[in-house]
Amino acid sequence: MTDAYAKAGVDTGESGAAVRALVDVLRTIDIGRSSRSVLASGHYASVLEIAPGLGLALCTDGVGSKVIVAEQAERYDTVGIDCVAMNVNDLICVGAEPIALLDYIAVERADAGVLREIGVGLKAGAEQAGVEIPGGELAQLPDLIRGHPSPRGFDLTAAAVGTVAVDAIVTGADAAPGDALIGLPSSGVHSNGLTLARRALLEDGGLDLGATPDELGGDSVADVLLEPTVIYVRAVLELLRSDVPVHGLAHITGDGLENLLRLHAPVGYAISDPLPVPPVFGLIARLGDVPDEEMWNIFNMGCGLVAVVPDEHTDEAAALLAAHHPGTRRIGAVTAHAGTVTRS
Which residues lie across from 107 on neighbouring strands? Predict the structure, then answer.
């Protein structure tokens, strides 16, 4: 558990135990036939074999408390990008090509203007990712959803599907000591840690969403907090279709670079040359009095995705990915110290 995050209302230790309690029950489901699942739980997406050699990858995720910033700023046209990104970026981590997404929007009050703006973001994200949104669900739940302020409340989540050949699933199992870690830059906070970010900037720091602290270079607090999550799909698919062996892919979300440990390999990871840290993180740390180590355990700190490739393919992989996401480069290496992530 991290102190600042717990004080902001998110107890990661408690939530982890709760998830385990839920999963322990779901593991006992008896469907009367053999399971189609071909990937152990705990990875970024599930994969079911739906035809000989063909895997269907599935995942679900949402925007989290970033919607509160959208409500307060009355800016709804970017959170749809985040919703798409949080799902498709997980799908590609198992080597799948995302093909479709279904959104779920729960609202306190159905407002045509707000829903249109959310749709604008969903459309932009879908086009960046190359996915369809053939359907979804709108639920009006005034007894459940309360806005900041009311009646602007909403929640935005989605489920996404993709396809992958069963023999081409990327699990991380091929990662070996000496492999290179290629880091792809984030655009800032993305869609994780917003509870702590809001508390640090708006409550502890006494800023408002329109404030433009010097650290943000002329951008407002709302600008940086609503900056959409980067969608890495096209870059990663090009890497997967290249001659570069891809040993692992990690979407860096909540828990920061510890997400590398979700890869299925008995190895460790040494971050020797991290990507530049966006200024918003320094501002959060200063105003919220958040220790450096805790910042790295909560936020992406400037790195939104990591590709694991053989050392001899470092330059080729970095150049290919940088063509889509400038600033991409090697940030470290795989080590033999299983279950560890170190940073120097």
Answer: 140, 154
Q: What is the pLDDT of residues 150-190, one digit of tens each?
A: 999 999 999 999 999 999 999 999 999 999 999 999 999 99
Q: Do residues 169 and 40 make contact, with C-beta atoms less than 8 angstroms apart?
A: no
Range(s) for CATH 3.30.1330.10 in the chain?
35-168
pTM of this structure: 0.94
Decide: 229 and 304 in contact? Cβ < 8 Å.
yes
With respect to CATH, is domain 180-343 assigned 3.40.50.1980? no
CA distance 262 to 175: 12
* Residue positions counted in the chain: 344
State the Cα–Cα distance between residues 275 and 273, nearest whole angstrom. Answer: 7
306-317 confidence digits (pLDDT tens): 999 999 999 999
User: For residues 91 and 214, what is the distance between their CA atoms, to the nearest angstrom?
Assistant: 37
Short-list 176, 237, 233, 171, CA closest to 37: 171
**CATH superfamily label, 35-168:** PurM-like, N-terminal domain (3.30.1330.10)
Closest to 92 (Cα-Cα) out of 191, 236, 230, 192: 236
Start-to-end CA distance of the chain, whole Å, equals 22
Q: CA 50, CA 209: separation in Å to the nearest integer?
A: 47
Q: For the residues of 82-95, what is the DSSP string, one character each? A: HHHHHHHHHHGGGT
Q: Which residues of 67-83 are buried (b: 16+ CB within 10 A; e: fewer)?
A: bbbbbbbebbbbbbbbb
